[in-house]
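Proteins fold reproducibly. Look at a concrete instance:
___
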Amino acid sequence: MKRLGIRWKLTLWYGGVLAVVLTVFSLAVYFTLRHQLLGRIDQGLDEELADVRYEITRATDAKTLHEWLTRRFAGHEGFDFQITRPDGERFFINPRLADRELPIPPQAAQSGTAAYESVSLAAGRWRVIRVVMQGPDGPLFVQVARSLAAFDHESSELLLAFLLTGPLTLLVAVGGGYFLARRALAPVQRMTQTADDISAERLNQRLEVENAGDELGALAETLNRMIGRLEQSFAEMQRFTADAAHELRTPLAVIRNEAEVALRSPRSPAEYARVLENLLEETNRLTSLAEQLLFLSRQDAGLHENTQEPVATHELVSEVVGNMQLVAQEKGVMLVLQENQPFQLASDPRQLRRVLYNLLDNAIKYTPPPGRASVRSTITSAGWALEVADTGMGIAPEHVPHIFERFYRIDPARSANGAGAGLGLSICRAIVKSLGGQIRADSTVGKGTTFRVVLPVHEA
């Protein structure tokens, strides 16, 4: 069974709520007006009963009372009167009730307190007020009545008016609600059509924002921001794929050329050894690049889980700096551990080593001899801070925001000179981010660069 659309759901909900409201309103008005009209009739009956009581209380004998009642109430318009003795004998009745008789309740139900009731006779319904009072020659049961024909007719007309106008009003309102729902949801339909046209090749398209202040405008802006992020991600993926293909192509081309040259003619064992050394070097380069790409891919997919174990940061920093001393000496760069505060941190030691090795490798690689690289490990209010500074060539301000991007190089020629694939800093950023920290770079051209890593403190 096909589900109803939002437009019909809104319309039906609106129609249902409106139907309930109209029904409650109509019933409230109907019964309120009936109560008011009946109250006015009761008020008139009460006034007429007061007049009858007055005549009875001032009469001295039954004959005089009958004459007064006949003279005053026999031809009274709108109201009818019946006065009965305890034995059921009519003492007085006006001519309109001559052929009718108001029902007399049992004696037990008769009291000296005025009571109202509605009775049905052959000629229709009547509203009656009754009371027992003392007459000149004994108790009298007094009844004053008024026909409810006009009241019932007005009530029927009012009910008929509600029954006719209510459904008509509901029909018009539901039609208007459907029209308004259609108008209100028209931007959604346009957004749907535009979204259907957006594909991986057309991510530059955006949804139209008609009114940024309403909910649909906020939804359109949110979707546009999402599409923008997707466009950026696709662009980065395409650039990443292209750069990765380019990086892989160079060592593969070298391996192919070396193999082709070696196979063209017989070579001496020394020449074959040189070729194999070159092939091994390029293979190692390919292996390293593949491992880096795999690591970044696993980080992006959230498949790499960092361990949480106690790490003595001062011991880890001392170990890595000691291991890199030989690399620095071969390059003619002085490597100094300036400050190394003792601290126990709950983190992943293997990943921390990788970050520090990459940062030191960069510092040594891009610092001309006789330069200097330094390391500081301190505890600050923001957390554990690691600084790796060098006195190298520095980085121009326009390049600093991009140095953590994958395959980004300030000088493309460095790749051919063994300066790496441009993934080291990307890996550092991915690791630091996964550990909940931050990494940034400050650099001055000609003076050097400082990388600062800050990790939140979770003491082991």
Residues 412-418 have pLDDT under 50 and may be disordered. The chain has nine helices and twelve strands. The longest helix spans residues 6-58. Residues 215-301 form a domain with the Helix Hairpins fold (CATH 1.10.287.130).
